[in-house]
Predict the structure.
Amino acid sequence: MKKMLQLKRLFSKVRANSDGSAAIEFAFTAPLLIFTIVGIMEFSMIMFLNASLEGGLRDAARFGTTGFTPTGFDREQIIIDKLQDATLGFIPIEDENITALAYSDFSEIGQPEPYIDSSPANGSYDAGEAFTDVNGNGQWDIDMGTPGLGGPCAVVVYRVETQWPLLLGLLASSIGNPVMLHASTAVRNEPFGTSPCSTMTGGIPSAGGGGGGT
């Protein structure tokens, strides 16, 4: 009986003693807490950079519409610099990250070059079929846009695509690492220079009809 009472008192002391329990609880909750904090930081950074990239591209496109190039500067490089400034230098922006395609009209964006679907007609372009070489590169293209910033009154689609490596990579399994960042915008150039829009096809010289595909 005496031993039973001693055991009860011992168990009571163990239950009453909370020394170290906080450390044990923190050890269980800390990984989840850290993961949550890092996740919030990662997502916030991605949202900030994507929004900055979109804003910077709109600013760069507005500059591109003017056709103005300061003496001693490169028009394309100014656009890259504007994007880098907008993202505070966190994202490396190079020529290969940016594409610009010029069109005569907004309705042409993303459209293939016209072609004659000769017999047997199958609804798609086949090598050898006659086409109109809108962008003048000597081959049929699924997108008729002309690479470059376009001339007066041209419609230009700017696209930028780059990567952002996650800070710690804890979310790599769920969202991938690096994260792809995209932005695009379409604008119409101003009637700059000496060529009025009325003498241009949307700011793009009219291309002659293409022959058979290559």
About this structure: The two ends are 102 Å apart (CA to CA). Residues 24-212 form one domain. Confidence is low (pLDDT under 50) at residues 198-211. Residues 44 and 119 are 55 Å apart (CA to CA).
